[in-house]
From TrEMBL:
Protein name in UniProt: NADPH2:quinone reductase
Classification via SMART domains: PKS_ER (SM00829)
A GO cellular component entry from the record: cytosol
Domain Enoyl reductase (ER) as annotated: residue spans: 10-321
Length: 323
Protein backbone atom coordinates (compact mmCIF):
# COMPACT_ATOMS: atom_id res chain seq x y z
CA UNK A 1 0.00 0.00 0.00
CA UNK A 2 1.01 3.64 -0.40
CA UNK A 3 1.46 5.72 2.71
CA UNK A 4 2.96 9.03 3.83
CA UNK A 5 5.86 8.33 6.16
CA UNK A 6 7.97 10.57 8.37
CA UNK A 7 11.51 9.39 9.18
CA UNK A 8 12.77 12.56 10.90
CA UNK A 9 11.24 15.71 12.37
CA UNK A 10 11.20 18.73 10.08
CA UNK A 11 9.35 20.82 7.51
CA UNK A 12 6.70 19.58 5.07
CA UNK A 13 9.36 17.93 2.90
CA UNK A 14 9.87 15.17 5.50
CA UNK A 15 6.46 13.81 4.43
CA UNK A 16 7.43 11.06 1.97
CA UNK A 17 5.17 8.78 -0.04
CA UNK A 18 6.41 5.20 0.33
CA UNK A 19 5.25 1.66 -0.48
CA UNK A 20 4.69 -0.41 2.66
CA UNK A 21 3.43 -3.93 3.39
CA UNK A 22 -0.32 -4.03 3.90
CA UNK A 23 -1.01 -4.15 7.66
CA UNK A 24 -2.82 -7.11 9.24
CA UNK A 25 -5.22 -6.73 12.14
CA UNK A 26 -4.15 -8.18 15.49
CA UNK A 27 -6.45 -9.06 18.39
CA UNK A 28 -9.01 -6.33 19.00
CA UNK A 29 -8.21 -4.54 15.73
CA UNK A 30 -9.93 -4.05 12.39
CA UNK A 31 -8.39 -3.54 8.96
CA UNK A 32 -9.81 -0.65 6.96
CA UNK A 33 -9.61 0.60 3.38
CA UNK A 34 -9.15 4.32 3.97
CA UNK A 35 -11.69 6.43 2.06
CA UNK A 36 -10.67 9.83 3.46
CA UNK A 37 -7.84 10.81 5.79
CA UNK A 38 -8.27 13.91 7.92
CA UNK A 39 -5.55 16.54 8.06
CA UNK A 40 -5.34 18.35 11.39
CA UNK A 41 -3.09 21.05 12.75
CA UNK A 42 -1.72 18.59 15.30
CA UNK A 43 -0.18 16.66 12.36
CA UNK A 44 2.14 19.63 11.81
CA UNK A 45 3.18 19.81 15.49
CA UNK A 46 4.02 16.09 15.35
CA UNK A 47 5.87 16.40 12.03
CA UNK A 48 7.94 19.29 13.39
CA UNK A 49 8.76 17.49 16.62
CA UNK A 50 6.92 20.00 18.85
CA UNK A 51 5.09 16.88 20.02
CA UNK A 52 7.97 14.37 19.95
CA UNK A 53 7.32 11.25 17.85
CA UNK A 54 9.13 7.95 17.47
CA UNK A 55 10.26 7.60 13.86
CA UNK A 56 9.55 6.24 11.36
CA UNK A 57 5.79 6.68 11.56
CA UNK A 58 2.97 6.99 9.06
CA UNK A 59 1.40 10.43 9.58
CA UNK A 60 -2.19 11.29 10.39
CA UNK A 61 -4.50 10.40 13.27
CA UNK A 62 -7.86 10.57 11.61
CA UNK A 63 -9.77 8.92 8.82
CA UNK A 64 -12.82 7.05 7.63
CA UNK A 65 -13.35 3.99 5.49
CA UNK A 66 -14.74 0.48 5.13
CA UNK A 67 -13.80 -2.47 7.35
CA UNK A 68 -12.22 -5.26 5.25
CA UNK A 69 -11.07 -7.73 7.94
CA UNK A 70 -11.53 -8.36 11.66
CA UNK A 71 -8.88 -9.34 14.17
CA UNK A 72 -9.49 -11.92 16.86
CA UNK A 73 -12.07 -11.06 19.49
CA UNK A 74 -13.66 -8.13 17.70
CA UNK A 75 -17.45 -8.06 18.11
CA UNK A 76 -20.14 -5.61 17.09
CA UNK A 77 -18.78 -4.82 13.63
CA UNK A 78 -18.88 -6.63 10.27
CA UNK A 79 -16.77 -6.56 7.14
CA UNK A 80 -18.20 -3.80 4.93
CA UNK A 81 -19.22 -1.51 7.84
CA UNK A 82 -18.20 2.17 7.62
CA UNK A 83 -16.18 3.50 10.52
CA UNK A 84 -14.13 6.56 11.44
CA UNK A 85 -11.33 7.15 13.92
CA UNK A 86 -9.51 10.17 15.33
CA UNK A 87 -6.74 8.73 17.47
CA UNK A 88 -4.84 6.17 15.36
CA UNK A 89 -1.52 6.87 13.66
CA UNK A 90 -1.08 5.73 10.09
CA UNK A 91 -4.11 7.45 8.59
CA UNK A 92 -2.29 9.07 5.64
CA UNK A 93 -2.35 5.69 3.87
CA UNK A 94 -4.47 3.42 1.70
CA UNK A 95 -5.01 0.92 4.51
CA UNK A 96 -4.84 1.07 8.27
CA UNK A 97 -5.34 -1.12 11.29
CA UNK A 98 -7.55 0.55 13.91
CA UNK A 99 -8.07 -0.69 17.48
CA UNK A 100 -11.82 -1.41 17.60
CA UNK A 101 -12.11 0.51 20.88
CA UNK A 102 -10.97 3.68 19.04
CA UNK A 103 -13.43 3.24 16.16
CA UNK A 104 -16.71 5.06 15.71
CA UNK A 105 -19.56 3.74 13.54
CA UNK A 106 -20.53 6.14 10.75
CA UNK A 107 -24.31 6.42 10.38
CA UNK A 108 -26.22 6.63 7.09
CA UNK A 109 -26.65 10.26 6.15
CA UNK A 110 -23.00 11.09 6.92
CA UNK A 111 -20.64 10.54 3.98
CA UNK A 112 -16.99 9.51 4.24
CA UNK A 113 -15.66 13.07 4.01
CA UNK A 114 -18.20 14.47 6.48
CA UNK A 115 -17.32 11.60 8.82
CA UNK A 116 -13.75 12.90 8.89
CA UNK A 117 -14.66 16.60 8.83
CA UNK A 118 -16.90 16.23 11.86
CA UNK A 119 -14.87 13.86 13.98
CA UNK A 120 -11.67 15.25 15.52
CA UNK A 121 -12.57 18.88 14.86
CA UNK A 122 -16.31 18.35 15.49
CA UNK A 123 -15.79 16.58 18.80
CA UNK A 124 -13.32 19.33 19.76
CA UNK A 125 -15.87 22.07 19.09
CA UNK A 126 -18.44 19.94 20.95
CA UNK A 127 -16.45 19.46 24.17
CA UNK A 128 -15.29 23.10 24.17
CA UNK A 129 -18.81 24.58 24.16
CA UNK A 130 -20.47 21.87 26.27
CA UNK A 131 -17.87 20.83 28.83
CA UNK A 132 -14.97 23.27 28.99
CA UNK A 133 -17.05 26.44 28.98
CA UNK A 134 -20.75 25.48 28.84
CA UNK A 135 -21.99 28.25 26.57
CA UNK A 136 -25.25 29.85 27.73
CA UNK A 137 -27.93 31.63 25.72
CA UNK A 138 -27.11 35.33 25.74
CA UNK A 139 -23.35 34.88 26.25
CA UNK A 140 -21.00 36.80 24.03
CA UNK A 141 -18.00 34.64 23.12
CA UNK A 142 -14.86 35.17 21.07
CA UNK A 143 -13.69 32.56 18.52
CA UNK A 144 -10.31 33.00 16.84
CA UNK A 145 -9.41 31.49 13.44
CA UNK A 146 -13.14 31.20 12.86
CA UNK A 147 -12.94 30.02 9.23
CA UNK A 148 -10.64 27.11 10.06
CA UNK A 149 -11.57 23.46 10.53
CA UNK A 150 -12.41 23.72 14.23
CA UNK A 151 -13.37 27.39 13.93
CA UNK A 152 -16.33 27.00 11.55
CA UNK A 153 -17.77 24.19 13.69
CA UNK A 154 -17.22 26.09 16.93
CA UNK A 155 -18.99 29.18 15.61
CA UNK A 156 -21.98 27.07 14.53
CA UNK A 157 -22.25 25.20 17.85
CA UNK A 158 -21.87 28.35 19.98
CA UNK A 159 -24.40 30.26 17.87
CA UNK A 160 -26.83 27.31 18.03
CA UNK A 161 -26.68 27.57 21.84
CA UNK A 162 -27.84 31.15 21.57
CA UNK A 163 -24.48 32.88 22.03
CA UNK A 164 -23.44 35.99 20.19
CA UNK A 165 -20.16 35.10 18.50
CA UNK A 166 -17.39 37.59 17.82
CA UNK A 167 -15.07 35.93 15.30
CA UNK A 168 -11.56 36.73 14.14
CA UNK A 169 -10.18 35.86 10.68
CA UNK A 170 -7.41 37.08 8.39
CA UNK A 171 -9.12 37.65 5.01
CA UNK A 172 -12.41 38.86 3.48
CA UNK A 173 -13.11 35.32 2.13
CA UNK A 174 -12.70 33.93 5.64
CA UNK A 175 -14.91 36.73 7.02
CA UNK A 176 -17.72 35.65 4.72
CA UNK A 177 -17.39 32.03 5.84
CA UNK A 178 -17.42 33.01 9.53
CA UNK A 179 -20.57 35.11 9.03
CA UNK A 180 -22.17 32.22 7.11
CA UNK A 181 -21.46 29.95 10.10
CA UNK A 182 -23.31 32.35 12.41
CA UNK A 183 -20.78 34.90 13.66
CA UNK A 184 -22.55 38.13 14.58
CA UNK A 185 -19.38 40.23 14.48
CA UNK A 186 -16.13 39.60 12.61
CA UNK A 187 -12.76 41.25 13.20
CA UNK A 188 -9.93 40.92 10.71
CA UNK A 189 -7.31 40.61 13.42
CA UNK A 190 -4.45 41.12 10.99
CA UNK A 191 -5.73 44.63 10.34
CA UNK A 192 -6.33 45.99 13.86
CA UNK A 193 -3.74 47.46 16.21
CA UNK A 194 -5.55 46.72 19.45
CA UNK A 195 -7.49 43.47 19.13
CA UNK A 196 -8.82 43.46 22.71
CA UNK A 197 -10.16 47.00 22.29
CA UNK A 198 -11.90 45.94 19.07
CA UNK A 199 -13.51 42.98 20.87
CA UNK A 200 -14.50 45.02 23.93
CA UNK A 201 -16.04 47.70 21.71
CA UNK A 202 -18.64 45.10 20.65
CA UNK A 203 -19.54 44.47 24.32
CA UNK A 204 -19.86 48.03 25.70
CA UNK A 205 -16.46 47.39 27.25
CA UNK A 206 -17.80 44.57 29.46
CA UNK A 207 -15.76 41.86 27.72
CA UNK A 208 -16.66 38.36 26.56
CA UNK A 209 -17.78 35.42 28.70
CA UNK A 210 -15.29 33.10 27.02
CA UNK A 211 -12.48 33.40 24.51
CA UNK A 212 -11.78 30.24 22.46
CA UNK A 213 -8.17 30.67 21.38
CA UNK A 214 -6.43 28.14 19.11
CA UNK A 215 -3.94 30.65 17.71
CA UNK A 216 -1.85 30.97 20.87
CA UNK A 217 1.25 33.12 20.87
CA UNK A 218 -0.03 36.06 18.81
CA UNK A 219 -3.53 36.25 20.31
CA UNK A 220 -3.13 35.14 23.93
CA UNK A 221 -2.65 38.60 25.46
CA UNK A 222 -5.59 40.03 23.52
CA UNK A 223 -7.79 37.08 24.49
CA UNK A 224 -6.99 37.64 28.16
CA UNK A 225 -7.70 41.37 27.87
CA UNK A 226 -11.00 40.66 26.06
CA UNK A 227 -12.58 38.75 28.95
CA UNK A 228 -15.32 40.03 31.20
CA UNK A 229 -14.90 39.65 34.97
CA UNK A 230 -14.79 35.93 35.87
CA UNK A 231 -14.66 35.07 32.16
CA UNK A 232 -12.77 32.06 30.82
CA UNK A 233 -9.83 31.90 28.45
CA UNK A 234 -9.95 28.54 26.70
CA UNK A 235 -6.53 28.13 25.11
CA UNK A 236 -6.75 25.02 22.93
CA UNK A 237 -4.07 25.38 20.28
CA UNK A 238 -0.89 27.08 19.16
CA UNK A 239 -1.19 27.69 15.41
CA UNK A 240 1.02 30.80 15.73
CA UNK A 241 3.37 29.21 18.26
CA UNK A 242 3.29 28.22 21.93
CA UNK A 243 2.34 30.76 24.62
CA UNK A 244 5.20 31.63 27.00
CA UNK A 245 4.76 30.89 30.72
CA UNK A 246 2.00 32.94 32.37
CA UNK A 247 2.16 34.58 35.81
CA UNK A 248 -1.06 33.58 37.68
CA UNK A 249 -1.30 37.13 39.01
CA UNK A 250 -2.34 38.17 35.51
CA UNK A 251 -5.59 36.24 35.97
CA UNK A 252 -6.30 38.33 39.05
CA UNK A 253 -5.55 41.62 37.27
CA UNK A 254 -7.73 40.63 34.31
CA UNK A 255 -10.78 40.32 36.62
CA UNK A 256 -10.54 36.99 38.48
CA UNK A 257 -10.64 35.18 35.17
CA UNK A 258 -10.09 31.46 34.48
CA UNK A 259 -7.46 29.97 32.18
CA UNK A 260 -7.65 26.42 30.88
CA UNK A 261 -5.65 24.49 28.26
CA UNK A 262 -7.82 21.46 27.35
CA UNK A 263 -7.32 18.68 24.81
CA UNK A 264 -9.86 16.46 23.11
CA UNK A 265 -8.37 13.17 24.26
CA UNK A 266 -9.24 13.99 27.88
CA UNK A 267 -12.88 14.40 26.84
CA UNK A 268 -13.20 11.09 24.96
CA UNK A 269 -11.47 8.82 27.45
CA UNK A 270 -13.60 5.69 27.25
CA UNK A 271 -15.00 4.05 24.13
CA UNK A 272 -18.47 4.91 25.41
CA UNK A 273 -17.61 8.59 25.79
CA UNK A 274 -15.96 8.64 22.36
CA UNK A 275 -18.91 7.02 20.60
CA UNK A 276 -21.52 9.11 22.45
CA UNK A 277 -19.75 12.36 21.57
CA UNK A 278 -19.21 11.31 17.96
CA UNK A 279 -22.84 10.18 17.69
CA UNK A 280 -24.02 13.58 18.94
CA UNK A 281 -21.93 15.40 16.35
CA UNK A 282 -22.88 13.00 13.54
CA UNK A 283 -26.58 13.36 14.37
CA UNK A 284 -26.25 17.13 13.91
CA UNK A 285 -24.50 16.57 10.56
CA UNK A 286 -27.12 14.08 9.39
CA UNK A 287 -30.06 16.34 10.28
CA UNK A 288 -28.40 19.33 8.62
CA UNK A 289 -27.96 21.47 11.75
CA UNK A 290 -24.15 21.23 11.54
CA UNK A 291 -22.52 22.02 8.22
CA UNK A 292 -19.13 20.44 7.57
CA UNK A 293 -17.24 22.47 5.03
CA UNK A 294 -14.60 20.52 3.11
CA UNK A 295 -12.25 23.33 2.14
CA UNK A 296 -9.62 21.38 0.22
CA UNK A 297 -8.91 17.85 -1.04
CA UNK A 298 -5.38 16.62 -1.72
CA UNK A 299 -4.18 13.33 -3.21
CA UNK A 300 -1.78 11.35 -1.01
CA UNK A 301 1.30 12.57 -2.86
CA UNK A 302 0.37 16.18 -2.11
CA UNK A 303 0.47 15.82 1.67
CA UNK A 304 3.38 18.26 1.71
CA UNK A 305 1.34 20.90 -0.12
CA UNK A 306 -1.49 20.37 2.34
CA UNK A 307 0.76 21.04 5.33
CA UNK A 308 2.31 24.07 3.62
CA UNK A 309 -1.11 25.54 2.83
CA UNK A 310 -2.39 24.89 6.36
CA UNK A 311 0.59 26.56 8.02
CA UNK A 312 0.56 29.47 5.57
CA UNK A 313 -3.08 30.26 6.53
CA UNK A 314 -4.25 29.58 2.97
CA UNK A 315 -6.92 27.06 3.94
CA UNK A 316 -10.50 27.12 5.20
CA UNK A 317 -12.62 24.39 6.74
CA UNK A 318 -11.55 20.75 6.72
CA UNK A 319 -8.62 19.41 4.69
CA UNK A 320 -8.94 15.87 3.34
CA UNK A 321 -6.22 13.58 2.01
CA UNK A 322 -7.62 11.14 -0.54
CA UNK A 323 -5.73 7.88 -0.83
P1 LIG B 1 -7.23 25.60 11.16
O1 LIG B 1 -8.02 25.17 9.97
O2 LIG B 1 -7.92 26.42 12.19
O3 LIG B 1 -5.92 26.32 10.67
C1 LIG B 1 -5.22 27.19 11.50
C2 LIG B 1 -5.71 28.64 11.36
O4 LIG B 1 -5.11 29.39 12.39
C3 LIG B 1 -5.27 29.31 10.08
O5 LIG B 1 -6.11 29.06 8.96
C4 LIG B 1 -5.30 30.77 10.49
O6 LIG B 1 -6.58 31.36 10.28
C5 LIG B 1 -5.03 30.72 12.00
N1 LIG B 1 -3.70 31.28 12.30
C6 LIG B 1 -3.47 32.44 12.96
N2 LIG B 1 -2.17 32.70 13.05
C7 LIG B 1 -1.53 31.69 12.41
C8 LIG B 1 -0.16 31.42 12.14
N3 LIG B 1 0.82 32.24 12.56
N4 LIG B 1 0.16 30.32 11.44
C9 LIG B 1 -0.80 29.48 11.04
N5 LIG B 1 -2.14 29.69 11.24
C10 LIG B 1 -2.50 30.79 11.94
O7 LIG B 1 -6.64 24.27 11.85
P2 LIG B 1 -7.40 23.16 12.69
O8 LIG B 1 -8.85 23.39 12.64
O9 LIG B 1 -6.85 21.83 12.34
O10 LIG B 1 -6.88 23.43 14.16
C11 LIG B 1 -7.13 24.69 14.76
C12 LIG B 1 -6.42 24.77 16.08
O11 LIG B 1 -7.10 23.98 17.02
C13 LIG B 1 -4.96 24.34 16.09
O12 LIG B 1 -4.25 25.21 16.91
C14 LIG B 1 -5.04 22.96 16.70
O13 LIG B 1 -3.86 22.59 17.34
C15 LIG B 1 -6.17 23.16 17.69
N6 LIG B 1 -6.83 21.92 18.07
C16 LIG B 1 -6.81 21.60 19.38
C17 LIG B 1 -7.45 20.48 19.83
C18 LIG B 1 -7.46 20.20 21.28
O14 LIG B 1 -7.97 19.17 21.68
N7 LIG B 1 -6.91 21.05 22.11
C19 LIG B 1 -8.11 19.54 18.91
C20 LIG B 1 -8.13 20.01 17.54
C21 LIG B 1 -7.50 21.15 17.15
P3 LIG B 1 -6.62 32.93 9.88
O15 LIG B 1 -5.94 33.00 8.52
O16 LIG B 1 -8.05 33.30 9.84
O17 LIG B 1 -5.83 33.65 10.93
Amino acid sequence: MRAVQVTKAGGPDVLEVVDLQDPTPGPGEVLVDVAAAGINYIDTYQREGIYPMETPYVAGLEGSGKVTALGEGVHGVSVGDRIAWAETFGSYAQKIVVPWEKAVPVPDGVDDEQAVGALLQGMTAHFLVNDTYPVQRGDTVLVHAAAGGVGLLLVQLAAAKGARVIATVSTPEKEELARGAGAAEVIRYTEVDDLAAAVRAFTDDEGVAAAFDSVGKTTFDASLASLRRRGMLVLFGAASGPVPPVDPQRLNSAGSVFLTRPKLFDFVITTGELRDRAAGVYAAVADGTLDVRIGHRYPLDQARNAHEDLQARRTTGKLILTP
